[in-house]
Amino acid sequence: MAEEIALNSSKLKYVSIEEARNMTGLRLILGAYAVPGPWRETCKGIFYVKKIPYVSVASAGKDGSDRELREWTAQVSAPVAVWNDERPRSTWIEQLYLAERLAPTPSLIPANTEDRLLLFGYGNEICGENGFAWSKRLTMIHAMLSNPKLDEANRKRWTYMGNKYGYSAAAAEAAPARMAEILQRLGARLEQQRAKGSKFFIGDQLSALDIYWATFAALIQPLPPELCPMATAFRDFYTNRDPAVAAALSPLLLEHRDFIYREYLELPIVF
Ligand SMILES: N[C@@H](CCC(=O)N[C@@H](CS)C(=O)NCC(=O)O)C(=O)O
User: Fold this and answer.
1) Residue 77 alpha carbon, nearest atom of ligand 1
2) Cβ–Cβ contacts within 10 Å for residue 248, how many?
3) pLDDT interval class at 7 (50, 70, 90)
4) Which of 39, 67, 73, 158 should be mutated for ligand 1, with most atoms under 8 A from CB?
5) What domains, with CATH codes, occur in the chain?
6) Which numbered atom of ligand 1 lies nearest the CA of 128?
7) What is the rounded CA–CA span in Å between residue 256 and residue 260?
8) What is d(CA 220, CA 123) in angstroms, rounded to the nearest whole number?
9) Measured from the CA of 92, which atom of ligand 1 is nearest?
10) Within its chain, how far is the Cα of 158 from the centroid?
11) Model confidence at 1, in pLDDT bands (50, 70, 90)?
């Protein structure tokens, strides 16, 4: 898969971890692939909305290993946000709080407690462990590992991913139902908000939840190639084929994704 997702013409200029460690300011460690990984796109999106500039850093070392990433961040997933010499922030919640601190406006975390409960509750269903994206990833690992023609390098890669993210065949089989449940809730929420005259998931202004959904929707239906020039192999892999998931996807959700990208996020998506 590695060569299939390689960057042909990169818009982002990636520095190495070694170079990035000697810099100050904001550095975002990203998988340097032409794939709109949802945590990566959401992290980029949040800093973009807040107009906070950053240097992109390739997560893999020169030899393709994660040694440098582990040494710097004490973990081996991306994205990671590093501000000056503060601790590296490798989770979506920490990244949001960092962005909010560096640029308090536009605020993406609601001021009112009830709304914050909604943001982090729904946000966790989309981005958190065993949530929407996590479940999708289990189905992707399952599809890979169930393919008898998978080559050795990919079998090794996806077995690694499976061990890292709690894969079992049973967990993968249960995953679409979890995805469908979350989509139903998100769709119902948008409908309620629309009935109240709001264009947003929470209250009447943009919050991080709108960005979470817009970016994580790629896991069901990536934006068209002119807006998301991603690797073709992954486009197919991301596109939903599960009937229960398809049935749970309200058209409002895709409309909302388009609206948020059009009005607030960088298009075309840059890799
Ligand atoms: N740590 C992030 C999630 C990031 C994440 O899961 N990244 C995955 C995307 S598939 C990753 O880096 N995978 C590459 C790998 O595990 O080698 C969070 O919980 O906020």
Assistant:
1) 12
2) 22
3) confident
4) 39
5) 3-102 (3.40.30.10), 113-264 (1.20.1050)
6) 19
7) 6
8) 17
9) 20
10) 19
11) low
